[in-house]
Amino acid sequence: MTVIDGLIVCNWSRSIFEEMVAGGLTAANCTCSIWEGFGESMRQLAALKQLMRDNADLVTPVYGVTDIDRARSEGKVGIILGWQNSTGFGEDLRMVPLYAELGLRVVQMTYHTANFAGSGCLEGVDRGLTDFGRDLVAALNEEGILIDLSHVGAQTAMDVVLCSQKPVAYTHCAPRALKEHARNKADEELLAVTRRGGVIGVTMFPPFMPRGNDSSLEDYVDVVDYVVSLCGEDHVAIGTDFMLDFPQERVGQFLQDKGVGRKLLNPTKPKFPDELQRISQFPNLTDAMQRRGWKDARIEKVIGGNWQRLFAQVWR
User: Fold this and answer.
1) Model confidence, pTM
2) Over the stretch 235-273, which tens digit does the pLDDT of each residue have?
3) CB atoms within 10 A of CB 295
């Protein structure tokens, strides 16, 4: 079975790669830029690529869907390079093909607040996609980079859905119908993406779950079930948002505007379900789906098949 996590952001190390192998992951979208501009994004990408070379017995880079199949056959984990912001391009669209050549395959338009492209979900006023943002969408489409809308404001996200010539995704989100939170998505936002062929990666990040830090693995499967019922099993996947082994000050930067400004969120320390606190416990998720009586065909789609299909549609 192909197992793909739509979003993991960790303090990357050999021990994290070992957990990914132990958890049976075939591939994962691995964040290597959040608030950073061009220079620091390039350095972080270089550092992750070097770490991958140093641990080639465990992981392999993913440039296309055939690399995912190869990773599975070799018993390794395919590393998909992803950003949770588009600030790494600066305001220079010539950087898009450059990063594409380096292996960047997933880019979120904005992270929490506004940038040159549009507004994030925590921006006071969502003014929608800018003209530069429209040009950026076209450039990402041209280079075969999947557009992510997880932290994007509702109006900006809808503008991207209508503007993009290729399907887009929420790589890691939860439904607002089950928990009122600025980061969660209304049903109509989820449906707008899936009606155009996109995929919803359901996160289990506790602040977005109906029972917060008291959420169990069964509660998470309940949320996945809700999105499947809404959008259909061909358009739902997993995007855990595992955030492991960071020092506390680094986690704090994720929650500050641009990494250094005002505090945007002040959640309690998140506690993932006991059965799925680490990547190595990933098989517990499949077991929980089987206990629900899900057919193998549905499990295979949600646990990885839908991501692979979308990547095949979008990546060049």
Assistant:
1) 0.97
2) 999 999 999 999 888 888 898 999 999 999 887 788 999
3) 11
| Predicted pLDDT of residue 99 | 98
Give the contacts of 227 (CB within 8 A, at least 6 positions apart): 175, 190, 200, 202, 236
pLDDT, tens digit (0-9, with 9 covering 90-100), for 264-297: 988 778 899 999 999 999 999 999 999 999 999 9
pLDDT tens string 14-51: 999 999 999 999 999 999 999 999 999 999 999 999 99
What is the secondary structure of the chain as a DSSP string?
A: ---EEEEE-----HHHHHHHHHTT-SEEEEE--SS--HHHHHHHHHHHHHHHHHTTTTEEE-SSHHHHHHHHHHT-EEEEEEES-SGGGTT-TTHHHHHHHHTEEEEES-SSS--SS--BTTSSS-----HHHHHHHHHHHHHT-EEE-TTB-HHHHHHHHHH-SS--EEEEE-BTTTS--TTSB-HHHHHHHHTTT-EEEEP--GGGSTTGGG--HHHHHHHHHHHHHHH-GGGEEE---B--S--HHHHHHHTBGGGTSSB---PPPP---GGGSSGGGTHHHHHHHHHTT--HHHHHIIIIIHHHHHHHHH--
